[in-house]
Design brief:
mainly alpha; 18 helices
Length: 375
């Protein structure tokens, strides 16, 4: 008599092909399609009402609202990452020797700007600790200008509450993404930098090969400590190809729109109702400190603009305490120098990620905080 393997699926049920497994885990193809239909409609509506970055902010607001009230949405596996690859290649290709020379001249300003960001995030930690009634460790890593996954992991290792850290980082990114582009367009002055697309449209095969190379570079960088390899890796690749003269390529507008929809949809889907209601005081305090950090960036941009001669809006986007991809997109949308904005953010990422524990130790000594979690 045949004995069935208890680990095998019951008879009568077909095993999913390996290619369908990621879509099943994401919520199923129909739900994914429905989500992107909603996102595309929201993007079109945002275009009609002249919302800045409509193809990103439209899906972000629509999907965020649906997720926040408990709606079940699903995003395409690797959709956000592939969107970042396309944007990263496009930004990297625009680095010329002249731009690199200008960035080299601004290197001291980039370092000082990063130290300023670290300083106002430490002040935000003091505010957040009092408002949310959390411990020193949780407060510091919840407001640090690093990646959400990295900060949550390090916070847990240091005795903090990773859930609180993740909630605040999600609110910070969402606040920056939703407010900074609108503020920049409303009160900033557009630039005059245009991006040529003719060559990209004439070389679809070359474009596909370059995007594939960007994807492979990002995959290769994933095991490294480099934050956000899906954006930074393709930027480095595009920089190398463009500045060396090996290849000159731009990303066509339709692909940029698709990338924005993918990123906006992913961001909106992060607003899980069950996560927000779990720690309501933490969420409310996180929103307050997010607004504080945006205000600090706006104030610091005045000094940065006055001392370097950069346009105020460029300085504001460069000092934004999160969302490098979205700030670069905003700079491109306003025809500003997206490469300089990228340079400031890469400098911030590099310094913050490499000094976070040293800065944390300094913060603990400065505040006399204790390292045990109270949540």
């Amino acid at each position: 008599m045949e004995v069935e393997d208890p680990l095998r699926e019951p008879r009568g049920k077909r095993q999913r092909p390996w290619l369908a497994a990621p879509f099943a885990r994401a919520g199923g193809v129909p739900r994914i399609l429905a989500t992107y239909v909603i996102a595309a409609i929201a993007g079109y509506v945002a275009v009609r009402v002249s919302l800045p970055l409509p193809w990103m902010l439209g899906p972000f607001f629509a999907c965020g609202a649906i997720s926040a009230v408990g709606g079940r949405l699903a995003f395409l596996p690797m959709g956000r990452e592939m969107g970042q690859v396309a944007i990263g290649i496009g930004v990297g290709m625009r680095f010329t020797p002249a731009i690199l020379a200008a960035m080299l001249a601004l290197l001291p300003a980039m370092v000082i700007a990063t130290l300023y960001v670290i300083a106002f995030t430490m002040v935000a930690a003091l505010i957040f600790r009092r408002l949310a009634a959390v411990d020193t460790t949780t407060a510091f890593f919840a407001t640090a200008a690093g990646g959400v996954a990295d900060m949550a992991i390090v916070a847990q290792e240091q005795g903090g509450n990773p859930n609180a850290v993740a909630i605040v980082h999600a609110l910070r990114v969402s606040s920056v993404v939703s407010l900074v582009p609108i503020l920049a367009v409303m009160f900033g002055t557009p630039g005059q930098i245009d991006v040529p697309y003719a060559e990209a449209n004439a070389n679809p095969l070359l474009l596909m090969l370059t995007l594939l190379a960007g994807y492979l570079v990002a995959v290769a960088l994933k095991p490294t400590p480099l934050p956000n390899p899906w954006l930074v890796g393709p930027i480095f690749l595009g920089l190398f190809l463009g500045a060396s003269g090996i290849l000159s390529l731009a990303i066509p507008p339709l692909l940029i729109i698709a990338a924005q929809i993918a990123i906006g949809t992913w961001l909106g889907c992060q607003f899980k109702r069950e996560v927000i209601v779990t720690l309501p005081r933490v969420a409310a305090a996180g929103l307050v400190v997010s607004l504080f950090m945006i205000s600090a960036a706006a104030l610091g941009a005045l000094v940065l603009s006055g001392t370097t001669g950069l346009p105020y809006t460029t300085g504001f986007l460069a000092l934004a305490p999160a969302a490098v991809t979205e700030m670069v997109l905003t700079a491109q949308y306003m025809h500003l120098d997206a490469e300089l904005v990228t340079g400031f953010h890469i400098m911030r990422i590099a310094i913050v990620s490499s000094t976070i524990l040293a800065v944390f130790g300094f913060y603990v000594k400065l505040t006399g905080g204790k390292l045990e979690s109270r949540l």
